[in-house]
Design brief:
Elements: E1 12-13, E2 19-20, H1 23-38, H2 43-51, H3 56-68, H4 75-88, H5 91-106, H6 114-119, H7 121-137, H8 141-155, E3 157-159, E4 170-172, E5 177-179, E6 184-185, E7 190-192, E8 196-198, E9 210-211, E10 216-217, E11 222-224, E12 228-229, E13 234-235, E14 240-241, E15 250-252, E16 257-258, H9 266-269
Length: 278
């Protein structure tokens, strides 16, 4: 497994006209080639999605477009939008690579880079959202909402395009994720299926949670209102969080209350057990 670090995904200079591929991209191409040899039935698909491209960003544009394209907007049109986003803001590509590394590091079911890139709806939904968020920042709100709608239809993940995400984010299984307009998700966060970052009431200003760096949100956790879940905190599965959670604190229950002792890097350990003292 490659070390945890951020890569650009593009060719790195190594003399005029030459370059060495970044490790994530090199690994993805290698594993795609191996898979094509082992499963010839998928060779054409693997060539189209990975092996025919010369850099990670180009392959990702193609993959997201093939998924999101349809009768209302062709895959080619979606691909052009992704290319615009990546050219305008290369940090989107760097974030996507950190997201992929997060999947490799934190999901024991992941056997290769091909799984998140081709099949994992948490990874694919997040990358589509990143493009939609870029569109939102450009004032292209209708198109951003179109991508949000397609993401919801395809992946059962509903994230408002205004919501910013850090990098190194892992969304496991992903079904039923709902994240509101004024929510914010920091770097190195992990969340499981059924998580809601929702608002309360009908206020039009800041009304959604802020999830800080390194937080773990268990399956089915509901975090409601303009509250903050502090760095490296842990929210138990099925909990309903209505008040701020201090950094490195574990909370669980309905409503959620502190349980057990302090935790450290829960989003990386993915440890969802609590020492309740019982």
């Amino acid at each position: 497994m490659t070390p945890s670090r951020t890569f650009t995904g593009e060719a790195e200079p190594n003399g005029p006209g030459a370059g060495a591929a970044a490790p994530i991209w090199r690994r993805l191409r290698f594993e795609a080639g191996q898979a094509a040899e082992r499963e010839p039935t998928l060779a054409s698909y693997l060539n189209a999605t990975v092996l025919n491209h010369d850099r990670f960003s180009a392959a990702l544009c193609y993959q997201l477009a093939q998924k999101a394209g349809g009768p209302d907007m062709s895959a080619l049109q979606v691909r052009e939008i992704c290319e615009q986003a990546y050219a305008s803001d290369p940090s989107i590509v760097a974030a996507a690579e950190r997201d992929m590394q997060a999947v490799l590091d934190r999901d024991p079911a992941t056997r290769s880079t091909l799984q998140p890139f081709l099949f994992f709806k948490g990874f694919l939904a997040l990358q589509t959202h990143r493009v939609g968020h870029w569109l939102w920042g450009q004032g292209r709100e209708t198109l951003a909402f179109f991508l949000q709608s397609r993401t919801s239809e395809l992946y059962a993940v509903d994230i408002h395009p205004a919501a910013p995400f850090g990098s190194g984010v892992f969304i496991d299984h992903a079904t039923g994720i709902v994240i509101g307009e004024t929510a914010r998700v920091g770097d190195d966060v992990s969340m499981l299926h059924g998580v809601t970052l929702g608002g309360t009431g009908k206020v039009f200003t800041d009304r959604h949670p802020k999830i800080e760096r390194g937080v773990l949100l268990g399956a089915g956790a509901k975090v409601l209102g303009a509250i903050t879940v502090g760095e490296e905190a842990r929210v138990g599965s099925g909990s309903v969080v209505l008040t701020d959670v201090p950094p490195r604190c574990s909370v669980a229950g309905v409503p959620a209350r502190p349980v057990g002792g302090a935790c450290a890097e829960p989003s990386k350990t993915m440890d969802q057990t609590f020492d309740t003292g019982i």
